[in-house]
Specification:
4-stranded mixed β-sheet; 2 helices
């Protein structure tokens, strides 16, 4: 299933190639202060792939905090955060914010709370390797 998404002003857009057999999409509502303040509810699957396009890359800020192992891609024009990436062992992994999915039937989203409190850096990176989208590419305009 091909799912399109974008920030509010559409400067930062993506195509999510959703490959899992189930049409249901898990949505993890992270309880960290950044995700709470930005409406971050994330999805990923290790068999999915993601293509990202920034119409004007100068309007995209990459924000990292805490362990600095992930980059939140923030559109500086509209303030939305449609995706997060993490580079591990030369490979770029990612998750997308379900609140930025375009034209998706909301009933297929399966929301659940997520807390990563107390997770050390090694465990965090291993969880990402297992669960995040392992095929992320940034397209040129």
């Amino acid at each position: 299933m091909l799912i399109h998404g974008s920030c509010h002003c559409r400067n930062l857009r993506f195509r999510l190639h959703w490959a899992p057999a189930s049409p249901l999409i898990p949505a993890r509502a992270c309880n960290c202060t950044f995700c709470l303040k930005h409406g971050g509810v994330w999805t990923s699957h290790p068999s999915a792939s993601l293509e990202v396009l920034a119409q004007d890359a100068s309007l995209v800020n990459r924000y990292s905090f805490a362990t600095k192992t992930a980059e939140f891609h923030v559109c500086t024009r509209c303030g939305n955060v449609p995706l997060v990436t993490s580079r591990m062992e030369g490979r770029l992994y990612g998750v997308v914010n379900v609140n930025t999915l375009d034209d998706i039937e909301r009933s297929i989203l399966r929301a659940s709370p997520a807390s990563f409190e107390g997770e050390d850096e090694a465990a965090r990176l291993e969880r990402r390797r297992r669960n995040w989208i392992p095929d992320v590419g940034f397209l040129k305009t």
